[in-house]
């Protein structure tokens, strides 16, 4: 009997989702950032859908889901973080030693089974890289890293309820 009580409180997958939640709808995230990366919205949308469908027992649906996840990318920026000055440069020129890629996503999560767990939150993360690297050559890998971190935060807030 104690095992039944424990099993109802905790699943061995670490999920705090109610067993009554069976379906999820994850809408495409639109890119409303001032600086637009043309592949970011599709990549983020696909990655978050894959995370929920592969790491939970939830089934994807477009009709009357138990959970709805949607949102928008509201910021995408690359900015200098560390500055260095060239010793041999005429006039002591200043240049960025490191750049930072930042992505911010606004998420609307609706839980129809447990409405008190629904939320609207903003998630953000960043990756720092050397400025002497070609941004076009590394942008894809850096975006992938930042997307993964943001999706982990979203997933944990919804599924693990941390």
Please tell me about this protein's structure.
The structure is a single chain. This protein has helices at residues 2-9, 40-55, 135-160; strands at 23-26, 30-31, 59-60, 67-85, 94-111, 119-130. With 162 residues, the chain is α/β, with parallel strands linked by helices. Strands 1, 2, 3, 4, 5 and 6 form a six-stranded mixed sheet that branches. Helix 2 (40-55) packs parallel to helix 3. The radius of gyration is 20 Å and the shape is elongated.
Our estimate of the beta-strand percent is: 35-45%
What is the H/E order?
HEEHEEEEH
How many strand segments? Answer: 6
Number of helical segments?
3
Mean pLDDT: 86
Helix content: 25-40%
Shape annotation? elongated
Structural class: alpha/beta
Give the radius of gyration. 20 Å
Straight-line distance between termini: 28 Å
Which stretches are low in confidence, meaning pLDDT under 50 for 5 or more residues running?
A: 1-13
Seen as an oligomer or otherwise, the chain set is: single chain
Main sheet attributes: strand count, strand direction, barrel closure: 6 strands, mixed
Provide the fold topology:
Blueprint: H1 2-9, E1 23-26, E2 30-31, H2 40-55, E3 59-60, E4 67-85, E5 94-111, E6 119-130, H3 135-160
Parallel strand pairs: 1-3, 1-4, 2-4
Antiparallel strand pairs: 4-5, 5-6
Short description:
It is built from 3 helices and 6 strands. With 162 residues, the protein is of the alpha/beta class. Strands 1, 2, 3, 4, 5 and 6 form a 6-stranded mixed sheet that branches.
């Amino acid at each position: 009997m104690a095992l039944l009580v424990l099993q109802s409180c905790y699943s061995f997958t670490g999920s705090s989702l109610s067993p009554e939640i069976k379906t999820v709808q994850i809408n495409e995230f639109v890119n409303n950032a001032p600086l637009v990366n043309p592949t970011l919205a599709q990549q983020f949308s696909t990655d978050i859908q894959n995370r929920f469908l592969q790491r939970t027992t939830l089934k994807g649906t477009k009709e009357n889901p138990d959970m709805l996840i949607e949102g928008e990318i509201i910021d995408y920026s690359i900015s200098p973080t560390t500055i260095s000055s060239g010793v041999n440069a005429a006039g002591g020129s200043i240049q960025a030693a490191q750049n930072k890629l930042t992505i911010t996503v606004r998420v609307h999560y609706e839980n129809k089974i447990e409405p008190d767990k629904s939320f609207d939150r903003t998630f953000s993360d960043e990756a720092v890289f050397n400025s002497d690297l070609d941004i076009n050559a590394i942008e894809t890998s850096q975006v992938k890293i930042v997307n993964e971190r943001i999706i982990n935060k979203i997933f944990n807030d919804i599924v693990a309820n941390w």
